[in-house]
Amino acid sequence: MRELLITLLICLVASASATFGQEHPPASGAPQDNPLSAHNRMVYEYVKRNLLGSAEKMPEEDYSFKPTDAVRSYGQILGHVADAQYAVCSIVLGEQNPAPSIEKSKTTKAELVAAIKDSCTYCDKAYAGMTDVSGVEMVTLLGHKMPKLGALNMNNIHAMEHYGNLVTYMRMKNIVPPSSDRGSR
Q1: What number of other Cβ atoms are within 10 A of residue 25's Cβ?
Q2: What is the per-residue pLDDT across 133-174, written as a single tens digit (0 to 9) for each?
Q3: Which helix (H) or strand (E) holds 94?
Q4: What is residue 183's predicted lDDT score, i.e. its pLDDT?
Q5: Domain presence at residue 65
């Protein structure tokens, strides 16, 4: 875990130095006084778009699909990601986790699309309220102390890890995933 945190910090510093090295402000309109949290929020928006697109693209009948019995179904992955987003963002916001056990309680496409949307709406507050100053405040996530910005970065990493699973499942069903679908960008 320590190596992962060091790698995350290196990535954050590298992205910050690239931002500071620009002669012109970022085209995205990101605040120059919060380049780290603005960059993390930009990554989150990309992750969110892919998660929501994945939830919507897969047909209802394939939500129970899993390539082998040893892995989660498509719907379970979405439920797991929603649960994780609530867990991480509630810690960052200093709130009680409002929606535990989605993976175990939701099974239909409609329920899971709504759950992933709701978890993103909840996390929107954490990312939108983050500044570079508040991002260094320490929280405990999975038994480890880390800065709030690091926790949000872990949320992005975790969601993208599972987006990779969703991509594989979609490809097995001949569905173009959102990140490869030029029409959905």
Answers
A1: 11
A2: 999 999 999 999 999 999 999 999 999 999 999 999 999 999
A3: none
A4: 67
A5: no
Q: What confidence tier does 182 reach under pLDDT thresholds 50, 70, 90?
A: confident
CATH number of the CATH domain containing 112: 1.20.120.450
Angle at 89 between CA 1 and CA 170, to 5 degrees: 80
Q: Which residue range(s) make up the domain with 144? A: 38-60+71-180
SS3 label, residue 32: coil
Contact call for residues 37 and 149 (beta carbons, < 8 A): yes
The reported pLDDT for the residue numbered 24 is 43
pTM of the entire predicted model: 0.82
CB 37 within 8 A of CB 135: yes
Contacts of residue 146, defined as CB under 8 A and 6 or more positions apart, other chains included, come to 5, 138, 139, 140, 154
Overall domain count for the chain = 1
- 62 close to 72: Cβ distance less than 8 angstroms: no
Whether 4 is in a domain gets the answer: no
